[in-house]
Amino acid sequence: MTAVQDILSALNLDQLAEQLGTSPEEAKQAAEAAVPALIGGLQANAADPAGAASITEALSQHASGLIDGGVDLNQVDVADGERITSHIFGSNQEAVVNQLGGLGGGAGLIGKLLPMLAPVVMSFLASKFGGGAQAQAQDSSQGGGISDMLGGLLGGGSGSGGGGIMDAIGGLFGSGSQGQSGGAGGGIMDALGGLLGGGRR
Q: What InterPro entries would the database entry show (predicted)?
């Protein structure tokens, strides 16, 4: 399983759909676009040493409990999620929302969804990185660190059916794989283009 699949499997789609005011199918489709965008935005920002330090500090403020045993969206702090998405996407946030909305569900749905899922993503990453995040982030100036850790989560399981989540994100990280994947994954890649990495560092 990739990190994205792990996060999606922890969500209660019926509860998510109810809070979004849509169908479980639409909620699932929107989440499948939003979760990679959030992790991808973090990974792009973490390529900058100051961004990596900022993400490490944010991870220290988020416990893994939100995702352990499945997510109860009633426990999600949406105001915190709004701050997280603002930090991830910066001035590109509106453009990211509009582009993801064009893939399905509309910008209004994506705009509501990102702040719901951002704390969930941070909780998942906190559970994966734990106390090692600080040490890993210190290596970011050498081109590794937390950026590589996030990239590894996105690339996990790339040998399975659809080519893994890196095919879905493709050229978002300058990997040179633009245009090599099709379907919904390629759509996410093509839609977001170079918008990721615009967050505050």
A: DUF937
Q: What is the DSSP letter of 48?
A: S
Mean pLDDT by 10 residues, the chain (201 residues): 84 96 94 88 81 82 84 94 92 87 85 96 84 45 60 49 36 33 42 57 46
Please indicate, yes or no, if residue 198 is contained in any of the structural domains.
no
* Any domain includes 200: no
Residue 159, domain member (yes or no): yes
φ and ψ of 29, to 5 deg: -60, -45
For residue 199, being part of any structural domain is answered with: no
pTM strictly above 0.85: no
Task: Enumerate helices (H) and strands (E) in the chain, giving the number of each.
Answer: 11, 0
Question: How many domains is the chain partitioned into structurally?
Answer: 1
The boundaries of the domain holding residue 77 are: 3-192
- The tokens describing 163, both together, are 């080519």
Helix (H, G, I), strand (E, B) or coil at 155: helix
The CA–CA distances, whole Å, from 94 to 25, 88, 114 equal 24, 12, 11
Q: In a 10 Å sphere around its CB, with 0-12 CB exposed, 13-18 middle and 19+ buried, how is residue 179 labelled?
A: exposed
